[in-house]
Amino acid sequence: MKIFKFGGASVKDAKGVKNVVKVLETVGYDNTLLVVSAMGKTTNALEEVIKNYFQNKDELQSSIQEVKKYHNEILLELFEKESHPVFWKVDGLFAELSSFLGRNKSPNYNFVYDQVIGFGELISTTIISQYLLETGIKNTWLDVRNFIKTDATYRDANVDWESTQQNINEGVNKGLLNITQGFLGSDPNNFTTTLGREGSDYTAAIFAYCLNAESVTIWKDVPGVLNADPRYFENARLLNQISYTEAIELAFYGASVIHPKTLQPLQRKEIPLYVKSFINPTGAGTSVSKGQDLEPKVPCFIVKKDQVLISLSSLDFSFIVEENISEIFKLLHDHRMKVDVIQNSAISFSVCADNKFNNLKDLLNILKAKFKVDCEEGVSLYTVRHATQDSLEELENGKDILLKQRLQNTVQLVTR
User: Which residues in 178-285 belong to E strands, given as ranges?
Assistant: First the structure.
């Protein structure tokens, strides 16, 4: 069985949905499972709904209507008659969304986030499944929450692999074209959970692992995995082949093409991952598999914007040793700060981290009780794999470098 994942950019409008059909007709879709994200910027729009729910109730209904209007325009372009069943199916999902917001009593932002945000994927897959049927492509719509079971860590849930494996083995018919949602799961009480932002790639890998899939293909608006993000770097080059190990390194450091958790289940069963263009589906793309580390062997550049650099030093010039570092890391863990770089000396400790959950203020208040604390927000973290001297000099030119760290195959710079 093959797993295809289509992201939001591939289905951002009616033209994109129609192109999914062309891709399937071009490359084939027998024994295939489609994992599909929310359409376009729907996740961002639903985040605005959540924000209004907590902070600005007067704007709540209008923000929901914006999401509904966007999808309705796509529906009207895809289906000739408003009497088509897809219209009431989508209306039913929006009614379910409004019902939840009307009855919810939980003040837990992360819980509410997961219950609301998942409607993007539920709506997109409903529309695409119905359009595939309309064009003569038979398919089975699956609610991923019935298959991927997780704990209750909302917004970054951990997969219960045993339950998930059993559900997928028993519930997925390998002989059909199936379509399901990326990014989502459900906890032991059947509340919706999410696997982390950009988690649809991970969903594809979970299904591939459980189904012993032949391959996973991620369809994107780029020709494959590039050695740099073309939004920030000129002359980005296509990587033809990457080993699992190299891809995991790139993902860990923040390469946006592949989700960090995606590769681990694929590597365990040596399932190849292909990253291809939905604009040119017959192009070679990039292969991620066991074998050659990198082809061609060129420097790879990754940038993470809007990071936080926290620098700590002891108040009495005593050494920062294992006990202090252990305490610092526990605080970083408790405040869900993702650590990207650490650097320490005898009396100082610096960490560059991602304040994804907006817990920085509380963390700093605790740290200031024991350390002298300097914090710089909005810094950029550059990571270069397989750097050459020329590539480093070009990258550093004109930048205010706050921290630099060099390992065998990796150089990292934190810049103001």
Answer: 178-181, 184-186, 192-194, 215-220, 241-243, 273-277
